[in-house]
Amino acid sequence: MGKTTETEEPGVDGVQSKSGSNGKSKPDPKAQPMSPEQELALAAIASGKSARAAAIDAGVHCGTLYRWLKDDPSFSAAYHTWQSERRESARARLMALTDNAVTVVTKAIDKEDIRTALTILKGLGVLTSITPGPTDADQLKRERDVAERRKENELSMEETMASIGGDLCAMAGWMLSASTVHIPPLLPSFTV
To answer: Are the CB atoms for 32 and 42 separated by under 8 Å?
Structure first.
């Protein structure tokens, strides 16, 4: 058939795998497999146990489990794969219920349930006032040009202030490093 493309993805058993477009996985020889304790801990988490209970089931300290999640790529990848699969499964189940949810909302609105109707209208943004922007293309262009020039001026001003600030800091350092502090007058003195 066609050419298969390979993408790397974490395997459920914690070993990195390369999967082609045909969906078949093969282990990545560079990845380290999980230890039996890690597999026990992940199985306990997947069965709904807390991290503490999973660590006890695996015969390790709870801190070890968190260290595996943080520092062990194989364990972390397997855990993230489990999380992703769990989330996708829940999402698919909820998507299957959307028709039922729409039916319930429709029935509530048919019974003139004002709270439901207002909640739907609010969620769709129908109740919020929308102020339309300018409809004149030339006016829009002028406003954008002004905003762009204003931004350029602000950046230029920031660069100038940073430059002046650096020069002032250097001058202050030079003056403080001298044996006697000499502060030059800000305005030239005039004699009459």
So the answer is: no
